[in-house]
């Protein structure tokens, strides 16, 4: 099956216009068929040994979201304390989650024991199952964008909060907590770029021919 030019352009459009969405969610519910398409896209991610180690815990209940938001608030205040001066001031103004506003939360997990201890492709690098689950997150994020759904990744939260709120056993790894919902618009650029927190690297600085070499620091790196 060949991808046509229009289809190719649609894929790139989806990739380049995907954004991390925090506060601009509409409460409009996500239709079942749309959600099913997005989760099916996530489920079709590549995985080591075709292990498919992920699961998706759907969170719609306000009480549960409230517990997760409370966990974020605690984690965010200790996180804020790690920045100094202007950075601290800027950090305190950032909106870094949309847990309560988003109609749906999705916790992506990884069952590291799904196919027994020996998995084709994970025999040398044990973390490959975790990477596979991150591939599922990226598929989900892009499929959601193609459905005009925003997604925001919330990592400023302790696993223990999500385990308790969502009944996730210790042996199951927590990969991501995602806030999902419709948005009225998608920003053109990452917010952290627009606010001057971190510039986008030139793609050419990430490409190395034949051997790795140190990338020139950006202005922001020099300030540190
Ligand atoms: C693994 C991981 C974890 C997080 C994020 C991303 C990823 C990949 N990002 C979103 C991140 O800030 C964002 O992707 C970049 O700033 C680039 O912006 P766009 O995603 O292109 O809009 C994110 N954003 C946020 O507001 N709170 C968070 O806790 C996190 N955590």
TrEMBL record:
The keyword DNA damage does not apply. This is 5,6-dimethylbenzimidazole synthase. Homooctamer. Residues 16-182 form the Nitroreductase domain. It catalyses: FMNH2 + O2 = dialurate + 5,6-dimethylbenzimidazole + D-erythrose 4-phosphate + H(+). It comes from the Bacteria. Pfam families: Nitroreductase (PF00881). Its EC number is 1.13.11.79. It is an enzyme of class 1 (oxidoreductase). Keywords: Flavoprotein, FMN, NAD, NADP, Nucleotide-binding, Oxidoreductase. Belongs to the BluB family. The lineage of its organism: Bacteria, Pseudomonadati, Pseudomonadota, Gammaproteobacteria, Alteromonadales.
């Amino acid at each position: 099956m060949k991808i046509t030019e229009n289809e190719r352009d649609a894929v790139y459009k989806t990739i380049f216009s995907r954004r991390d969405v925090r506060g601009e969610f509409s409460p409009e519910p996500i239709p079942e068929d749309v959600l099913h398409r997005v989760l099916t896209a996530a489920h079709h991610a590549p995985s080591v040994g075709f292990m498919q180690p992920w699961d998706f815990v759907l969170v719609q209940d306000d009480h549960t979201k409230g517990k997760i938001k409370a966990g974020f608030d605690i984690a965010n205040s200790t996180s804020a304390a790690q920045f100094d001066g202007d950075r601290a001031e800027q950090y305190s103004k950032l909106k870094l989650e949309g847990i309560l506003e988003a109609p749906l939360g999705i916790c992506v997990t990884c069952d590291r024991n799904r196919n027994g201890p020996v998995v084709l492709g994970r025999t040398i690098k044990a973390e490959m199952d975790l990477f596979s689950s991150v591939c599922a997150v990226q598929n989900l994020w892009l499929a959601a964008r193609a459905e005009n759904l925003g997604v925001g990744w919330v990592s400023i939260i302790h696993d223990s909060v999500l385990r308790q709120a969502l009944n996730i056993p210790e042996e199951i790894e927590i990969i991501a907590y995602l806030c999902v919902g419709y948005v009225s618009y998608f920003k053109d650029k990452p917010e952290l770029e627009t606010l001057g927190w971190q510039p986008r690297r030139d793609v050419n600085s990430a490409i190395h021919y034949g051997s790795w070499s140190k990338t020139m620091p950006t202005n922001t790196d020099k300030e540190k």
